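so i finally got all the pieces together for this one. its two components total, 670 residues if u count the protein bits. some of the lines might not be protein, just check the labels. i wanna see the whole assembly predicted at once instead of chain by chain like last time, that was a mess tbh
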Amino acid sequence: MIIDCHGHYTTAPQAHTDWRRDQLTALLSGAGTPEYPSISDDEIRESIETQQLRMLRERGSDMTIFSPRASAMGHHEGDLEANRAWSRVSNDLVARVVDLFPSAFIGVCQLPQSPGAPLDAAISELRRCVDMGFVGLNLNPDPSGGHWTSPPLTDPYWFPLYEVMVELDVPAMVHVSASSNPAFHATGAHYMNADTTAFMQLLAGDLFGTFPELRLVIPHGGGAVPYHWGRYRGLADMLGQPPLDTHVMRNVFFDTCVYHQAGIDLLVEVIDTDNILFGSEMVGAVRGIDPTTGHYFDDTRRYVEAADLSGAQREQIYAGNALRVYPRLAAQLGR
Amino acid sequence: MIIDCHGHYTTAPQAHTDWRRDQLTALLSGAGTPEYPSISDDEIRESIETQQLRMLRERGSDMTIFSPRASAMGHHEGDLEANRAWSRVSNDLVARVVDLFPSAFIGVCQLPQSPGAPLDAAISELRRCVDMGFVGLNLNPDPSGGHWTSPPLTDPYWFPLYEVMVELDVPAMVHVSASSNPAFHATGAHYMNADTTAFMQLLAGDLFGTFPELRLVIPHGGGAVPYHWGRYRGLADMLGQPPLDTHVMRNVFFDTCVYHQAGIDLLVEVIDTDNILFGSEMVGAVRGIDPTTGHYFDDTRRYVEAADLSGAQREQIYAGNALRVYPRLAAQLGR
């Protein structure tokens, strides 16, 4: 079985995306919130069958842990109330995808975050989504959209959310949204930087001393971290922190969203197999075909197949680790 | 010959560092700027002979392209005038190191940048330092210290500096200073993020169409970039930009400040040898010994020696590329 831990509904019907635009326009002008459009099951089916589901089958994967489009979360754009409504309709749309294709998709929710706002709305939405069968959440460490005004992930600001994550036994993928800072290209800089930044916050803190059961997935192969694994091992030592394998890596996992063979080879060489979850972020940031291979850049299964791994290790990366990190998925598959 | 392209005077005499602290205190209180202390040649000799020079010899390198301590540039701390004075004394101190050890060190300057300020002071200081024999500069793409308030490196804001760099035929290392943003650990997140961010700015723009002779060194092995080389090749394609090897990589170089074997192996596998400059950032961010090897994390020569490279390629990385990227160094060595 092959579970892709990292897919977003990047192909959501246009009416859904347009509603967010209209909602934000109305917010700025003081007009009332527009009514959310009616979207048919057929529209949803088509948006999925022609894209994610087709590619899932072509690439030989079985299912995707699926969440609303990350770049559209836009926590920096609306206020808390607007983002609450946007999260709700976005998560409901993912729930409909899961209902239509229950063997191929399982839900992970977007949270109604807003810079500086308390996390009560996020916690309520997380509970609502878990009640609908969702198995995890996307946590934005920088709801300001590239201005990094929130405290580090190790700060007590985030603890109320972590308490509920532990109670519900759901992991978070640490995933930023779009960038409103001209310095940062979203998928080329902000995403990578957020992954690296989050890891370093966790390395320098003791979050997992407080929350030993908390699990965080750092996407995009861990940003810069595996490539600089010696630097991070050395920094842990310099800062008087425990070695990474007995500290951060008990609770942190990287996906395989690294779009060339040499990158995946490095990932599986330096990171323990237990800490790697198969992911592709398909259909996502990079949609073209690599002229050097003739295959899609984000067809990450090919790289994992070609990597120096035993069959048992590959099985862990493809499914075993995901079932451990997302126990609610394991429970649903067991039924 | 082995040239380390990335060394900072991290062991500068305490009186120098204390003066900056006192200068900033005086600036805040409105007091007059304190007098810069007298620092003897013996103090400088000792700070170098017991540290950088000893390690340079122990590790079998010949010389270091040497600049003021990056984390102490602190462009976000003083105003432009204070930073002008601080750059001047910091560069003068590097010039004294070069005078005392002319076969082992060559100077690269810190610039008096300040968030939002024009670049005239930086240009004047660059000219002054090149007149003293310096061969390059460190350019901070984020003088705000982790708030990223400056325009991208492709913006005309930076062009007056680039014009003078081309005129003087000196390259810049793109290097941030300390972080004043609690989200970013300096050497574990801000440095890596800046490298990644700068590369993506260059990928998305056409700076080298305007300045075909401009040369930029992105340190720390290029941040996250080589590990995600497929992503960047794919993003260039998605953005309708030329392939990396015929665009950004004609003018951009990565150093070897990657502190483990697997990272260096990936770097030399995916990045053309022409674009790699030997560097260690010694004595720098990571000073300990790797328990898995028994050697210093930042003894990057060991990794380059063990990498899959021909003798000619290794020679390029060790010296040939540096002499090409820093022609003023080549000219001085030729004399």
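Strands of chain A lie at 3-9, 63-68, 105-109, 136-139, 172-174, 216-218, 252-255, 276-277, 289-290, 295-296.
The mean pLDDT of chain A is 97.
anyway lmk what u think
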